[in-house]
Specification:
By secondary structure, the chain is of the alpha/beta class. The chain folds into two domains: 146 residues, Medium-chain alcohol dehydrogenases, catalytic domain (Quinone Oxidoreductase, Chain A, domain 1, Alpha-Beta Complex), CATH 3.90.180.10; 119 residues, Rossmann fold, CATH 3.40.50.720. Helix content is 28%, strand content 27%. Strands 3, 5, 6, 7, 14 and 15 form a six-stranded mixed β-sheet that branches. Helix 3 crosses helix 8. It starts with a strand and ends with a strand.
């Protein structure tokens, strides 16, 4: 089979499309024929060697965690899923023609493989950070870097929970944020004053790592009400950095329910082939994404 692999840490140019042995589903796992794989910032951070503590990597290594596809092997001990089912979930080395998943859920009716591949990690992250930052129904949550996959999920899930949302993003994504129910404003000089004009901020999330932790603490008045998933220097300001995933099976079940009820939709901004994985990483690293980027197999 074909898969994307890297034999050394570095830039996008270390990614290569190679021929590899097919993986197989062990106990408690399933294998899918991958139809689409989600592109996440953690993918290029692992490739760069940034997050080896949380993601020990043996070289050469495959790439990717999220995927959607058709079940073609069911491991021992697995119940409730059959060969031929359409599923989305989390696994290892998902930038490939076949991948083994450790957590999965059936795809909601009407969802494409491309769309489904964009949900697993971002929904788990969104649910986790909303919970960890301690924002409650009736309060207002500020989301810095709100137009990407995690931001899109946070805005919709928070509103579903009765939480008002303010989002910051580039000028081109203001209407997109408003379409998700957020009060929106742009980055740049004077952005904190523009946020204050939109109302009180009870809690804040840094999703982009753009050096705004100090300002977010100022807006909330309490570093304990700010959380980052993108700035490793956040603890210097007394702000929690969240990098340990929660329950993926629970997140997938909640995602499937919200999608089926029309409460959650994350658009795919751009699709790539396996051979274009390096370009996908370059674009993901550049940011300013509206929704998700995925590889189509």
């Amino acid at each position: 089979m074909r898969k994307v692999s890297f034999a050394e840490f570095g830039g996008p140019d270390v990614l290569h499309l190679v021929d590899a042995e097919e993986p197989h589903a062990g106990h408690g796992h399933i294998r899918i024929t991958v139809r689409a794989a989600g592109v996440n910032p953690v993918d290029w951070r692992i490739r760069e060697g940034q997050v080896l503590g949380a993601h020990p990597t043996v070289l050469p290594s495959g790439v990717g965690q999220d995927a959607a596809g058709v079940v073609d092997e069911v491991g021992e001990g697995v119940e409730g899923v059959a060969i031929g089912d359409h599923v989305f979930g989390e696994g290892a080395s998902t930038y490939a023609e076949f991948a083994v998943l450790s957590a999965w859920a059936r795809m909601p009716e009407g969802l494409t493989f491309e769309e489904a591949a964009g949900y697993p990690s971002v929904v788990e992250t969104a649910l986790r950070v909303i919970r960890e930052v301690g924002v409650r129904p009736g309060q207002t949550l500020l989301v810095s870097g709100a137009s990407g996959g995690v931001g899109s999920a946070v805005l919709q899930i928070a509103r579903h929970q009765g939480i008002a949302v303010i989002g910051t993003a580039g000028a081109a994504n203001q209407d997109y944020l408003r379409s998700l129910g957020a009060a929106a404003t742009t980055y740049g000089e004077g952005w904190t004053e523009r946020v204050r004009q939109l109302g009180r901020v009870d809690a804040a999330l840094d999703l982009a790592g753009s050096g705004v932790i100090r300002e977010l603490v100022g807006l909330t008045g309490d570093p304990r009400k700010v959380l980052s998933i993108a700035d490793l220097g956040a603890p210097e300001f007394g702000v929690r950095f969240s990098g340990v995933a929660g329950s993926m099976p629970d997140a997938l079940a909640e995602a499937a329910d919200l999608i089926a009820r029309g409460r959650l939709h994350i658009p795919v901004e751009k699709s790539y082939t396996l051979a274009e994985a390096a370009a996908a990483h370059i674009d993901s690293h550049a940011g300013h994404t509206r929704g998700r980027r995925v590889l189509v197999i």
